[in-house]
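Quick check before the chapter quiz. The format below is the same one you will see on the exam, so make sure you can read both the input and the output lines.
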Amino acid sequence: MSWLLSILVLILLPLSSTSSLTADLFEKWCKQHGKTYASDQEKLHRLRVFEDNHAYVTHHNNLADSSYTLSLNAFADLTHNEFKASRFGLSASANNLTKITRGSAVQGSSSVNDVPSSLDWRKSGAVTPVKDQGNCGACWSFSATGAIEGINKIVTGSIISLSEQELVDCDRSYDSGCGGGLMDYAFQFVVNNNGIDTEEDYPYHGGGKSCNRNKLKRCVVTIDGYVDVPESDEKQLLQAVVTQPVSVGICGSERAFQLYSKGIFTGPCSTSLDHAVLIVGYDSKDGLDYWILKNSWGTSWGMNGYIYMQRNSGNSEGICGINMLASYPTKSSPNPPPPPSPGPTKCDILTSCSGGETCCCARRFLGICFSWKCCELNSAVCCKDHHHCCPHDYPICDTERNLCLKRTGNGTIVKELGKKGSFGKFGGWTPLLEHWIM
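Here is the expected output.
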């Protein structure tokens, strides 16, 4: 019985220091954010981290003079060091930047008095929905595509969500995928490549893989070049934002930034740049001027993925260094005509599937496939039961439970079969998914 007593002591002693209220709050938080853990020990550790973050949030929100509030968001089970290690990817060279091919300097500007008192590019349809970079330091790619999406809408009238994954996989001359990068290098890559593919065609999966050369050739949106806003010149930055959304580097690794909920963020934070975001507008409230920033941490962070950050702070570098590294793409020419629809997918010399489908072997002997079926999903994973397929971004087949899975962070995200159906030329594959289970 001594071993049982030891186990009970290990379980009950830590819990005795944790209030029942916080433990109940943690259980509700886990359900809200779909968090599961590999073991009871891991869950207990996360509860302790959650409790510490809860105390930090409570202390801050009780401050009478703060212009912003914090919350127990989706990152509330991470220590500050864990959070910093997983979400930041602005290249270290951003703090001592020598550009290989510097963008054009800002040319001329009108008086600040000539700009509108407030502006929000979301209201003009020039901003795509908030995205989530996951545990990949690719913030630079999301900032860059956001700026290109904005100028493309302004020039052509079309809002097209563009492929961060193409930048992560293929832009390797100076950027390093999930290891970090800079927006200027991404802009130059798009210029050199004569355009960038759409998110729909080259979707984001949160990790670097080999470059898909076929998709690299699908240049849907083009830019002409890019412009660097003079460092620490907030007036010039405001002039730039009046014309289009602007990419900026900031210090996003402060603990308050991790747990930010709403209001105008005023720091404190350093000017050591480690994160990239997109300025999509500006405004003022109660005498406090602020920028409207689009982040790439999903809609569960901040104000549905956005943060207000103080401007005109009196510091030339700006709050969190926001005035130090700003740039935006230029565009005057139309996009190329849309690429032709994909042709048939060849399975072998006698068999093919329709464009956008995946060939999956239904019968194999001595390593040779004698019978093929078609999965309606593009670049799908063919399950070993020879009857199902999963999307490439949910590559783990669980045919017993009709699930497609992928590992992410501390848990597993699931897609489940919602309805059965057959499709394709050869008797049809059944995809294991139809809707989210979160």
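If your answer matched, good. Confidence is low (pLDDT under 50) at residues 1-13, 96-102, 409-430, 433-438.
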